[in-house]
Specification:
With 227 residues, the protein is of the alpha+beta class. Helix content is 37%, strand content 19%.
Length: 227
């Protein structure tokens, strides 16, 4: 693979996440180990840094909520595994919080470059704050990228995972500012007969703004699967 391509990343939404094997704070792992579960795979610039420390604490506190969505967390930086362990222990000693998810030690930067986690115009030695939401089939569904100096909003990552799961379950979409428990958007009609049928349904249910914008309450089964 071309080196510059590796530096810029070759990962796109809708593609199969590339497998890898790596050393982590919870032993050797493969990305394929997470098959059947959703995964939030994220990078951080470095251990013992202020913003990253707050993020790790926030991810740890939110971990039970991710678990309720059949979702695991997996961190990565190009620091060593001993550094990761020392940082985890320092966080534990100061806060009592144990990081319940692995952090990958990507010393060579091979995984970081493969996933576009190193922005060469910013730094060749630090990973920026990338987030990849990968579904239970190993498909990349969302890519988020934050700069070095802006911490991630963990509730938004949680919200996005749940929105994806609700949308998949209902074959629907979620509107702007959607929050868990709110209505989803039904697929728009593709033919005129479907449009007429939708108008009849909308008149009866009173759940639309127009024939092309109709809402649906997620079925209990979808919510139960997520919770």
């Amino acid at each position: 693979m071309d080196y510059e391509l590796m530096m810029n990343g070759n990962v796109k939404i809708g593609e199969k996440a590339q497998d890898f094997e790596a050393i982590s704070t919870y032993g050797n792992i493969k990305l394929s180990d997470y098959k059947g579960k959703w995964l939030v795979f994220f990078s951080h610039p470095g251990d013992f840094t202020p913003v990253c420390t707050t993020e790790m604490i926030a991810f740890a506190k939110a971990y039970p909520y991710f678990k309720n969505l059949n979702t695991e967390l997996l961190g990565l930086s190009i620091d060593s595994n001993p550094s990761h362990l020392a940082w985890m222990y320092d966080i534990y000693c100061r806060t009592g919080i144990i990081l319940p998810f692995p952090i990958i030690a990507d010393r060579s930067g091979e995984i970081a470059r493969k996933y576009g986690m190193i922005a060469s115009n910013i730094s060749n030695t630090e990973t920026v704050r990338n987030v990849y939401i990968i579904d239970e089939k190993g498909i990349i569904r969302v890519i988020l990228i934050y700069p070095l100096n802006v911490g991630r909003w963990i509730p938004e990552i949680l919200r996005t995972v749940e929105a994806l799961q609700i949308a998949d379950c209902e074959n629907a979409s979620t509107p702007a500012n959607w929050r868990p428990g709110e209505l989803a958007i039904m697929p728009a009609p593709r033919t005129f007969p479907q449009l007429q049928e939708r108008e009849i349904e909308n008149e009866k249910e009173k759940n639309s703004l127009s024939w092309y914008l109709s809402f649906i309450k997620p079925q209990k089964e979808c919510i139960v699967e997520n919770k």
